[in-house]
Amino acid sequence: MKNILISTDFSPNANHAAAYGYNLAKQVKGNILLVNAITIPAEVTQSGMIVWPMNQESELITESTDELQKLKAHLEQNDYSDTFRPSINYLTEAGKVIDVIDHIADKEIGLVIIGKHSADALSTFLPGNHCSHLIDTANKPLLMVPEHASIKEVKKIAFAFDFNHIGKDLESIYKLIEFAKALHADVLLTHIFDNPQSSSMKLMIDQLLTELSNKADYPHIYYRAITESNAEQGLDWLCEHGQIDILAMNHGPYSFIDDVLNLSHTQKMAAHITIPLLVYQVEN
Predict the structure, then answer these.
(1) Residues 187 and 83 placed together within one structural domain of the fold
(2) CA atoms within a 13 Å half-sphere pointing along the CA-CB vector of 245
């Protein structure tokens, strides 16, 4: 697998996400790039010009680099296994988290991982929130790790899809299957229905599973329908009772003009989910 970029601010939840990412990298036999985005304090001169003190920038970069080295050493020293060990590189760059990640996440990066506070509530999903902005703008698959998510082998990933947008979902499903192959994990496709499925719908699903398995050459693809009028409640039930390790979803642009309560299903799930959430970005 390509490299995994792990964004960190050295907080406890970010350190937990780094440990989760290290374990995931071991499973897919990928390598890690630890990234810290720093903010350089600006000063306003008497002339009104904004300047960035070079000595302060140098100090912040040095401090960040020291912390990244400590985090790298911690991850390596706490690996007592005799299996694959990821190589770990690190980088400090000045700027907003979303801009730094967008700049660094080139073709060699296959996945971006970021920690998420379990205390994040729906009200925090406003402009300025890192997770919210990354969901909207990430140009790579984004894995958000809650601070209490279990660090263990990933055996099953569920993908919540919508038959009304199956064309857009298929591209992400094939990407997810490739990821699951590297993990040797099952892929569980799931859809939330208001009413029990019709016989014609079941036939369409059987055809879809056959097509996916044949084209992707991966037999470990399954399906589960959930009857629930509320999509988030249905996915909550799946996360709690479906024995899944990661929930994957597509996310497309939405308008900030809408009321905050009209956030996408992806962002609503991200606000309270207790297992890692994998987000694929799609266009309108």
Answers:
(1) no
(2) 16
CB hemisphere CA count around 115 (13 angstroms) = 25
CB 17 within 8 A of CB 70: no
- pTM for the whole structure: 0.85
Closest Cα partner for 57 from 73, 35, 44, 39? 39
Of 242, 113, 222, 221, residue with least CA distance to 177: 221
Out of 40-49, 82-91, 200-209, which region has the weakest mean confidence (pLDDT)? 40-49
How far, in whole angstroms, is CA 264 from its chain's centroid? Answer: 16
Range of the domain at 207: 156-244
Q: How many angstroms separate the CA atoms of 182 and 64, rounded?
A: 32
For position 92, what pLDDT does the model report?
A: 93
Assess whether 139 and 182 both reside in one domain.
no
Beta strands in the chain (DSSP E): 3-7, 32-38, 43-44, 50-51, 88-94, 109-116, 142-146, 156-160, 186-193, 221-227, 246-251, 277-281
| 11-42 CB burial, b ≥16 within 10 A, e <16 | eebbbbbbbbbbbbbbbbebbbbbbbbbeeee
**Beta partners for residue 227, in sequence order:** 193
Same-domain pairing of 33 and 110: yes
**Same domain flag for 139 and 13:** yes
Say whether both 104 and 175 belong to one domain: no
Cβ count near 265 (within 10 Å) = 16
Contact between 205 and 190 (Cβ < 8 Å) = no
Closest CA to 192 of 158, 145, 157, 144: 158
Where is pLDDT greater, at 189 or 117? 189
